[in-house]
Amino acid sequence: MQSFDVIVLGGGIxxxxxxxxxxxxxxxxxxxxxxxxxxxxxxxxxxxxxxSFVLPFGFPAPRRFKDILLDxxxxxxxxxxxxPRMLKWLLDFYIQSNAENRSKxxxxxxxxxxxxxxxxxxxxxxxxxxxxxxxxGRVKIHRSKASFDGDAFERETLTKLGxxxxxxxxxxxxxxxxxxxxxxxxxxxxxxxxxxxxPGAVVAGYAQGFIAAGGTFIKGDAATLTQxxxxxxxxxxxxxxxxxxxxPWASNLLKPMGYNFxxxxxxxYHQHFKGAAMNHAIVDADIGYVMGGCTKGIRITTGAExxxxxxxxxxxxxxxxxxxxxxxxxxxxxxxAEAWLGCRPCTTxxxxxxxxxxxxxxxxxxxxxxxxxxTIGPATGKLLAQMMTGEAxxxxxxxxxxxxx
Length: 405
Ligand SMILES: Cc1cc2nc3c(=O)[nH]c(=O)nc-3n(C[C@H](O)[C@H](O)[C@H](O)COP(=O)(O)OP(=O)(O)OC[C@H]3O[C@@H](n4cnc5c(N)ncnc54)[C@H](O)[C@@H]3O)c2cc1C
Hints:
This protein is an alpha/beta fold and 405 residues long. The chain contains 13 helices and 21 strands. It has a domain at 1-52 and 102-131 and 196-261 and 349-405: FAD/NAD(P)-binding domain (3-Layer(bba) Sandwich). Helices cover 33% and strands 25% of the residues. Helix 1 (13-24) packs parallel to helix 10 and helix 1 (13-24) packs parallel to helix 13. The mean pLDDT is 97. The structure holds flavin-adenine dinucleotide. Flavin-adenine dinucleotide binds at residues 9-15, 32-35, 39-42, 44-48, 50, 221-223, 245-249, 268, 270, 301, 342, 344, 369-375, 377.
């Protein structure tokens, strides 16, 4: 049995960032994952570092919700057999979706997102991750005036919080994104966001930095975690402290231990296409998907699917968005036969769960990163490392505390 100060379970963006920040504060850390780092949710996302985030996603408007239930919508899908198991989560999410709660939760997210680009750049130094970084971030496209006007609340919130943005006509947008066809009404350019062209490789790069600085990576299964004599043991490693950063798998370990967090899984797909180049990650707001240039081609990522975590793939949302994506860009043919599927681990208030467990000594959480986990992973990793080492916190942990539910 090898002894460490801390074991971190999960090698996604949350776990790798936590491990690196603990290491930078003098801790001897073992990072444990069943796979290599950055192979799951942190691999398949849209790669946006969303420093311009001001409002979490809300419950869909009644007409859209009806279409979702009737399985006619591209932005979201519900497996009706699974729906009863999601009802409590959906009700709590609905309550958190009114304008007041969304604004409040958006403000609580700001300390985690506002410096997200700098937090990523700090972890990129000296490893392979840096070559995937692009300064150009997210642009939201509205296809009609009605859609643009309907989104005024986001622009008002951006203005109120001092987050920079530009509203561009198709002709102005063509100067920075020449391959996108001018079939839309306005583009909202969020200038403080950035993106990466291979999020999985970026997380692998951060893990490479952790290992090069003396950190230990162990292939092992978190399900074998035990506690005895004041130490946690897993995969041949032992430590006084253990961090759970298992993303969408966290509840499998934590529920039997008595922690029943409201983490709903929103499944999402991506597929790559061989088509024309693009410089930004484009959110097609009216249809509900994201399209951006990646190392494997144009990556199209879909919105939410509510279905059991292990249910077979149903990439119907990809087929539904494709005709719309082709209106905007010559995306060409798919460069892979099958779509990738992953799960966003979403809390009802859209805030992550970061901090000390209530009922077990030496147990810590960094989970529930939802739609924005790639963005905030470095910041939540830093915050948790500061808590665990007694350092002054860069922001209050109150909004993210595990005992808030
Ligand atoms: C389609 C899609 C698009 C997205 N786009 C964006 C975006 O553009 N920007 C953004 O900020 N966020 C985005 N997200 C959200 C983001 O990807 C997630 O919030 C984030 O990756 C979660 O990171 P994580 O480290 O918590 O989980 P993960 O990356 O899933 O890491 C969990 C790790 O735990 C490991 N594990 C599982 N079970 C065990 C076990 N039993 N033992 C040991 N290890 C185990 C897994 O192998 C995995 O490596 C998107 C998500 C999806 C699905």
